[in-house]
Automatic annotation (TrEMBL):
<dbReference type="InterPro" id="IPR029068">
    <property type="entry name" value="Glyas_Bleomycin-R_OHBP_Dase"/>
</dbReference>
<keyword id="KW-0413">Isomerase</keyword>
<dbReference type="Pfam" id="PF13669">
    <property type="entry name" value="Glyoxalase_4"/>
</dbReference>
<comment type="similarity">
    <text>Belongs to the methylmalonyl-CoA epimerase family.</text>
</comment>
<feature type="domain" description="VOC">
    <location>
        <begin position="3"/>
        <end position="131"/>
    </location>
</feature>
<dbReference type="InterPro" id="IPR017515">
    <property type="entry name" value="MeMalonyl-CoA_epimerase"/>
</dbReference>
<dbReference type="InterPro" id="IPR051785">
    <property type="entry name" value="MMCE/EMCE_epimerase"/>
</dbReference>
<protein>
    <submittedName>
        <fullName>Methylmalonyl-CoA epimerase</fullName>
        <ecNumber>5.1.99.1</ecNumber>
    </submittedName>
</protein>
<dbReference type="InterPro" id="IPR037523">
    <property type="entry name" value="VOC_core"/>
</dbReference>
<keyword id="KW-0479">Metal-binding</keyword>
<dbReference type="GO" id="GO:0004493">
    <property type="term" value="F:methylmalonyl-CoA epimerase activity"/>
</dbReference>
Amino acid sequence: MNKVEHIGIAVSDIKIAGDIYEKLLNTTVYKTERVEQEGVETAFLQTGPNKIELLQATHEDSAIAKFIAKKGEGIHHIAFDVDDIEAEMQRLKQEGFVLLSDKPKLGADNKLVCFVHPKSANGVLVELCQSVDNR
Ligand SMILES: CC[C@@H](C(=O)O)C(=O)SCCNC(=O)CCNC(=O)[C@H](O)C(C)(C)COP(=O)(O)OP(=O)(O)OC[C@H]1O[C@@H](n2cnc3c(N)ncnc32)[C@H](O)[C@@H]1OP(=O)(O)O
Ligand SMILES: [Co+2]
């Protein structure tokens, strides 16, 4: 695995949260994207080498809606950049981690993604990300 690709933060209102994070980080939201498959609206901010992904649910069955209902707004996942997502998925499976899909899915920002169940990663939802350009 390479660097942290982004930190995902679950928010109830992406416009309000975007304004707060713009002030906090002294930068602007550079991109928004709706990912229907995940039931989320996203907004991205960059601070130094770090990327923040704000996530608002687009329907009540979305993972983000369930998370906020249970735990409230806050850090939802940590995503790591990988060179070869299928190889990394295979490695993690062999190490006993529980993957949440058999195949990579298309995420935001032109990435292939796969999630590791938080119960198998010390209570943290982990996302693997491979740039589609890396394929
Ligand atoms: C925009 C696309 C993409 C990107 O490109 O970056 C994204 O980031 S999409 C982000 C949203 N999508 C996902 O999170 C997909 C993966 N997540 C899931 O499949 C589910 O959320 C889950 C992790 C399997 C949990 O779903 P479910 O089992 O239905 O929910 P429960 O509420 O019953 O949770 C079970 C258990 O797990 C704990 N939990 C849930 N979410 C998290 C979390 N984010 N971090 C830590 N722990 C989490 C939850 O509290 C439950 O624990 P117990 O109460 O102890 O049983
Ligand atoms: Co993410």
